[in-house]
Design goal:
This protein is an alpha+beta fold. The protein has two helices and eight strands. It has helices at about 10-20, 60-75; strands at about 30-35, 40-45, 50, 55, 85-90, 100-110, 115-125, 130-140. The chain has a six-stranded antiparallel beta sheet. Strands 3-4 form a two-stranded antiparallel sheet. It is globular, with a radius of gyration of 14 Å.
Amino acid sequence: MPVAKMSVIELERFLHVEFPQVFRTGGDILIESADGETCLLRQRYSEAMLRPGGTVSGPTLMALADCAMYVVLLSAIGPVGLAVTTNLNINFLRKGAPGQDVLAAAKILKLGKRLAVGEVSLTSGASPEPIAHVTATYSIPTP
């Protein structure tokens, strides 16, 4: 099992500095766990997440999935701020319930020297059924 290069506290500190627009103190996205191979993020419910019709919007889910992939990658490789998304594919499976937090469980599938591939399962509230499934590839810059 991989050893995390950054703890949750270290990730939060780094992300508060590098991405304060998303990861601010008391913000909507919380890192619940990260171990170098997996992570769990929670996006607190707000009405800003909803699209017309009262379901969680696609852009909300895509942004949360991308954040989760970035967090799990940083937990695996350390504070590499210039790691970037090169591909993100999302399948919307069911409606996200209004009034519920959204959870993003990310997992690294393959970690290479230049690329990392992972997947993210998004769930809504206490339901174990995924509302979306995401695969993503990140480019890792040379040191």
